[in-house]
Design a protein that fits this description.
This protein is of the alpha/beta class. The protein contains ten helices and seven strands. The protein has helices at about 20-35, 55-65, 80-90, 110-115, 135-150, 170, 185-190, 215-235, 240-270, 280-310, and strands at about 5-15, 40-45, 65-70, 90-100, 120-125, 165, 195-200. α5 (about 135-150) runs parallel beside α8 (about 215-235) and α9 (about 240-270) packs antiparallel against α10.
């Protein structure tokens, strides 16, 4: 039996100091939603703004019953804002977009149809023609997305595009934290939602203010991606990584040490000139490898015990049940 939803679409907007763009954004969304006759809600999450954004959200909500607001006491970041927005969303399809007017609500109807009509779990926007600075945004973004495609296996050209549409079930079964909002498609894939595609979307120049993300986001994003890959691959079986790596390191160190000692004994037994083992740098490298190997193995053993004691060790996403 198909699940019933109170709304057709929930639009989650993460906001941090975007007071100037909010009235125009709300009107634009309203125009598109009413034209398409959608039953919708807009969840505006104020991420600790200091420019009066929350007061503006309250003003908009008082004039439009479809607009709801959530306000953080301080700035927690976009992932936290999306997590709370996802928790509150009741629409059959959940759409995320930025508040800076660079994402167009005109794209939402087609993305909605791709979810509902074509059966996709996620439709990710692809800003084919970015209206940003080519040196500081476009080129780093291309490198970042190429790396993300290689590691995640998802053939998305713009993993970090703020304009995305999700089946409601997706956002209710994933956890977004830290700065992991960049990799929601990858998180969803690891949760078993694999019908993921992309749609070219119109990208506009920023009309008000300036970007809140600096160049450091690319390095942070790369480190977050490695963390996600490691956790998804070895999160519930840490011994497979630490134990294997530790064993190989220990064996390599042992083999080198034994070889050095054996070579010395053979030379000594034949009356040949030999160099004492303890005077050879390779011997100390072998000792380091032995110690590091033991430490890695023990780390894996401890991590395995912690993993087996975790409260969600048997938590699985069940697609259907009879």
């Amino acid at each position: 039996m198909a699940q019933e939803f109170p709304k057709d679409i929930s639009i989650v907007v993460s906001i941090y100091n975007e007071v100037e763009s909010l009235p125009e954004l709300a009107e634009w969304i309203k125009k598109v939603m009413e034209r398409e006759n959608y039953d919708y809600e807009v969840i505006m999450v104020d991420d600790g703004s200091t420019d009066g954004s929350w007061e503006k959200i309250s003003e908009i909500a008082s004039a439009n019953k479809n607009v709801h607001g959530i306000s953080f006491r301080r700035n927690y970041g976009k992932s936290a804002a999306l997590y709370c927005g996802f928790e509150a969303a009741s629409g059959r399809v959940v759409v995320t977009m930025d508040a800076d007017l660079q994402d167009s609500p005109e794209e939402i109807p087609e993305m909605y149809e791709m979810i509902v009509g074509q059966g996709y779990d996620i439709v990710s926007g692809w800003k084919q023609h970015r209206q940003d600075n080519k040196l500081t945004k476009n080129l780093p973004s291309k490198l970042y997305n190429a790396t993300a495609r290689m590691i995640t296996g998802l053939k998305l050209h713009d993993m970090n595009c703020g304009l995305k549409a999700y089946r409601n079930e997706v956002v209710k079964n994933i956890e977004v934290y830290g700065e992991m909002h960049r990799y929601i498609p990858y998180i969803a894939k690891n949760a078993g939602f694999c019908k993921i595609t992309e749609k070219p979307v119109h990208h506009q120049k920023r009309k008000y203010g300036k970007s809140k993300f600096g160049i450091s986001r690319f390095m942070n994003g790369f480190l977050d991606l490695l963390s996600l890959w490691f956790l998804s691959t070895f999160g519930k079986k840490p011994m497979h990584f630490f134990g294997l790596t530790g064993t190989l390191t220990f064996v390599a160190g042992g083999v080198i040490a034994v070889w050095l000692i054996a070579a010395k004994l053979v030379a000594q037994s034949h009356g040949l000139k030999f160099r004492p083992v303890t005077e050879q740098p390779l011997f100390y490298l072998a000792l380091v490898a032995l110690i590091v190997g033991i430490q890695l193995f023990l780390s894996g053993f401890i991590a395995e015990m912690i993993s087996r004691s975790s409260s969600d060790r048997n938590r699985y996403n069940i697609k259907a049940r009879f």
